[in-house]
Design brief:
Length: 351
Amino acid sequence: MSVKQDLFGTHSDWLSHTLNNAVAGLPETKTYLPDGTRIIRKAVGVLDITPPSDRANPNSEALIVSAGVHGNETAPIEVMNGLVSELMDGAWELACPVLLILGNPQAMVAGERFLEVNLNRLFDGAHRRTEYAGLEEAARAECLEEICRQFAGANRQALYHYDLHTAIRPSHRERFALYPFVEGRNVPADQCDFLLEAEVETLLLQHKAGTTFSSFSSSQLNAESFTVELGKVRPFGQNDLQRFSGIRDALRRRFRGQAAPSPQPPFDQLTVFEVVHEILNTGRNFRFHVPDDVANFTEYPPGTVIWEDDDTEYRVGRSPEAIVFPNPQVPVGHRVGLMIRPQTGSDENLI
Ligand SMILES: O=C(O)CCC(=O)N[C@@H](CCC(=O)O)C(=O)O
Ligand SMILES: [Zn+2]
């Protein structure tokens, strides 16, 4: 039997196997590529891939790469599936341990952001909250956390996590990354260069810890983690994958253990914003004053009322602020959007 058959049965590739087994609880399966690379399918949509022990890992790193945490954000899923196919077809050799994750297979089948609850709000233990008991997404978050912990425990190299997404709204900045907040943590310069290599020119620094996948891996696994927004949400088959070649090529370079190129024009300057306010649906007659169709990074002048409820309101402060991820259709307590402004002062959060 071929490696593909071992892992994916009659299905042509990883994505097809994942979509066709989204509700199945398949047992763990292990196989080896002809070059000795070990592939373990830890769960549906989760591959733990380790090069032979005598192969050099020049960048001394282990990588977690995830996509499809939101089921309708399909382009990064297609990018990852393509890289897995290349590896399995022997197009190149893997140099470092990688954990590849398609986050929410059932939502991918449904073509929806999520089924019952937003998976990307359930990490860092939030899946244990009583209101989420018995939900598919809570079980998936728990499963993914455990697999990531095992991977981090088994691979003592520097750990990196890139959680790949696409955005619901159009955006004045096509690609941007979010750096989860961890007390005392600064963005390493080599990670800024990696984002530029992936043609991601904008970085948002979170101002408080959250319950996203990247927050979990950075705070609990000590990974350097980023949520990376790579373009616009589209159904499977409708993505222009050329627009995603930056992340594809940059990830492939890391997987192969090749040296980092120095940033090249036009992708040689990272623009950094800081989150100044997270808008939450307070549930107290919450009113959101940002129109439904507004693009990410739309700027509002000082004094603009962004939201209000029966007790309070939020106005833009002394300098202009921009909105990211505006979405009032979320449950009470969940995020309606982020208010950001260009990073002030020196680059104190960058090293
Ligand atoms: O376009 C949108 O409104 C959402 C896109 C998306 O899924 N973004 C992530 C960002 C996670 C983070 O803050 O690190 C999300 O909302 O989960
Ligand atoms: Zn998303």
